[in-house]
Design brief:
Order of helices and strands: EEHEEE
Number of strands: 5
Distance between the termini: 52 Å
Largest sheet: 3 strands, antiparallel
Number of helices: 1
Strand order of the largest sheet: 3-4-5
Structural class: alpha+beta
Number of domains: 2
Shape: elongated
Bound molecules: zinc ion
Strand content: 15-25%
Length: 99
């Protein structure tokens, strides 16, 4: 029963993809370990996509030595002009303008 996929019933199927998300390697089903709502999961996913996009476009960096290191920022959602907004954890300054 443990580690069984609740969707396809495969045993030992669930593998972790993050601290809160596991995925069935058989069918791809993704329940969450702590049963966070689908809405929250969508938000977490949106944040990950936003970070990926920001790093790819150079708005944020994956280099810890850069001023705009992504690890120092929190995703704050979509702001005016459909621009993803990020807030610095310490300075509380936003990155969010169209550049
Ligand atoms: Zn499954």
């Amino acid at each position: 029963m443990e580690n069984q996929c609740e969707k396809c019933k495969q045993n030992n199927a669930m593998i972790p993809v993050s601290s809160t998300i596991v995925e069935c390697r058989n069918c791809g089903h993704r329940p969450t370990i702590d049963k966070i709502s689908a809405e929250q999961y969508g938000e977490a996913n949106a944040a990950r996509v936003a970070f990926d996009k920001a790093i790819a476009s150079g708005r944020l960096s994956d280099n810890p030595n850069k001023w705009n290191y992504a690890g120092d920022y929190m995703y704050m959602g979509i702001g005016a002009g459909d621009v993803d907004q990020f807030k610095h954890r310490l300075s509380r300054e936003y990155i969010g303008g169209v550049k």
